[in-house]
Amino acid sequence: MSTEFAPVSPPDETAKREAVARHAQLTKPAGSLGRLEELGVWVTACQGQCPPRPFGRPRVVVFAGDHGVTARGVSAYPSEVTGQMVANFLTGGAAINVLAATAGATVRVVDMSVDSEASPPAVTAHKVRRGSGSIDREDALTEDEVRTAIEAGQAIADAEVDGGADLLVAGDMGIGNTTPASVIIAALTGSEPVAVVGRGTGIDDNGWMRKAAAIRDGLRRARRVSTDPVALLRTTAGADITAIAAFLAQAAVRRTPVILDGVVSGAAALVAEELAPGAREWWVAGHRSVEPAHSLVLEHLDLKPLLELDMRLGEGSGAVAALPLVTMSARVLAEMATFADAGVTTSP
Ligand SMILES: O=C(O)c1ccc[n+]([C@@H]2O[C@H](COP(=O)([O-])O)[C@@H](O)[C@H]2O)c1
Ligand SMILES: Cc1cc2nc[nH]c2cc1C
């Protein structure tokens, strides 16, 4: 078994230059579509083709898992909600199902480590264990489990790209998962616990104090291994966040663009950039979550979010909310008339 990633090559520079030049020809004042122009240039560079193709198969993969640290009272909801929401995703009743249907994406759910045996076989093919270890006092995973979870994330990204996915989103579902996410972010950005503790699903002040203590204890263990990404995933992430990190890294290896979601995929993205340097060039930040640690991720990866809607749901929801903008940015380059085509005068 291996935790190696093939090298990441950057998006295509020639296609990027062609997209910049094409924007200057389209019937609008230069630069007038603002960041939609930059976004279209990024899509073109990722596809290596100007004008870009419309997306054929935008795909959301929701990675579900439970976390032992939830027993410390760090969430506003009980662990059984994770498995119940997996069932809800499968019957199409969750926010991500509705948002994805609206934006033209399809949704897949993967049970990596839900603390239940109820998920159907189709979603448990990569399941590593029932719940990850309580990271304030023990490792989230064993050596074998972290490797299995990395291989799962890689295999899922490969299967999606081989199946035609041309734009990927990693969603997360796991009661308690903002605690490991916050520890990872603190460890990799050199932040203090108080700078990363957020309200997650909506904890009260006592819950906030319990969560701060759990993050402090988890960070003490995580800091010992913060320069070794696989060891950091093993001690701190759990199987779900580990698989997301590998999925994001492998998407970049496979030259497939990704819209990042909130604090949990953000924590995974920080590790993915360590596993596969340069992967961040294949990602755009869909939104800024209200979780304070998410802003640290965006700053660290130098990503500017497309939306700021005060969302804090997870599931890939903030990424999919931004998908229509990504779609528009590509269609502008592909479908707008040029000054020459439309007979519009370019200069005084
Ligand atoms: O995406 C985010 O930024 C985000 C912020 C807060 C909460 N969540 C979601 O809420 C759950 C974790 O919250 P908590 O309070 O149980 O740690 C998990 O299912 C996440 O998908 C997600
Ligand atoms: C109901 C519910 C849905 C979610 N989706 C992502 N995290 C969630 C947390 C809860 C509690």
UniProtKB/TrEMBL annotation:
<dbReference type="InterPro" id="IPR023195">
    <property type="entry name" value="Nict_dMeBzImd_PRibTrfase_N"/>
</dbReference>
<protein>
    <recommendedName>
        <fullName>Nicotinate-nucleotide--dimethylbenzimidazole phosphoribosyltransferase</fullName>
        <ecNumber>2.4.2.21</ecNumber>
    </recommendedName>
</protein>
<keyword id="KW-0808">Transferase</keyword>
<keyword id="KW-0169">Cobalamin biosynthesis</keyword>
<comment type="pathway">
    <text>Nucleoside biosynthesis; alpha-ribazole biosynthesis; alpha-ribazole from 5,6-dimethylbenzimidazole: step 1/2.</text>
</comment>
<dbReference type="InterPro" id="IPR003200">
    <property type="entry name" value="Nict_dMeBzImd_PRibTrfase"/>
</dbReference>
<comment type="function">
    <text>Catalyzes the synthesis of alpha-ribazole-5'-phosphate from nicotinate mononucleotide (NAMN) and 5,6-dimethylbenzimidazole (DMB).</text>
</comment>
<dbReference type="Pfam" id="PF02277">
    <property type="entry name" value="DBI_PRT"/>
</dbReference>
<dbReference type="GO" id="GO:0008939">
    <property type="term" value="F:nicotinate-nucleotide-dimethylbenzimidazole phosphoribosyltransferase activity"/>
</dbReference>
<dbReference type="GO" id="GO:0009236">
    <property type="term" value="P:cobalamin biosynthetic process"/>
</dbReference>
<keyword id="KW-0328">Glycosyltransferase</keyword>
<comment type="similarity">
    <text>Belongs to the CobT family.</text>
</comment>
<dbReference type="InterPro" id="IPR017846">
    <property type="entry name" value="Nict_dMeBzImd_PRibTrfase_bact"/>
</dbReference>
<feature type="active site" description="Proton acceptor">
    <location>
        <position position="315"/>
    </location>
</feature>
<dbReference type="InterPro" id="IPR036087">
    <property type="entry name" value="Nict_dMeBzImd_PRibTrfase_sf"/>
</dbReference>
